Amino acid sequence: MSVPQRRLGPIARLTALVSGLVLFAFAAAELCNDAIGLVSLETMGDIAAWRTTFIRSWPGSVLLFVAFVSHVGTTLWFVASRATLRMPLWDAAQIVSGILVPLLLLPYLVDTRLAQALFRRGINVQPILYPAVPERAARLRFFLTAAHSEEQVRQTVAILLEENRQVTAEPSDLAAVARHLGKLAIFSK
User: Fold this and answer.
1) What is the mean pLDDT of each run of 10 residues along the chain (189 residues)?
2) What angle do CA 129, 112, 176 make, to 5 degrees?
3) Tell me: domain 112-189, CATH 3.40.50.150, correct?
């Protein structure tokens, strides 16, 4: 191992640890919010609104983006800096999870964007995600009852079309997110 790699090793491990903790906190918040929904749907909605507000803000988006990129990047750096690919099973598990976990969370963020946009507009829909449906085939579940008027249904459809246009205009893959963040005035200074 060369001298720069020896010096960068602890920094890379700390970066991987911190970015992993950020991703873990994101996933844990999602799962805890779902668990709270078993007790109180009102509380679940309140927490989801707060969490969504943070995640969709530019500091939250940047934090998640940096965590994704740095976690995958440091994992790839660890693989590239190895003299051989022979390794203990634990190291292999860390490398595989270091690459897969962020990539498995990314579709969740993309697929729930429309559901969250509708929720902010007062329409409660549930996203149906993989593995409940085929990968890349996420769906929204709407709950209609006899108490809904025809006007409410028409308004929901209009809002759905409007929000869908806005969401589909947003970047959906990691490279597009990077280009999108690069265009923001706050980062170009």
Assistant:
1) 66 88 87 85 82 79 86 85 82 83 74 77 79 77 85 88 78 58 51
2) 110
3) no
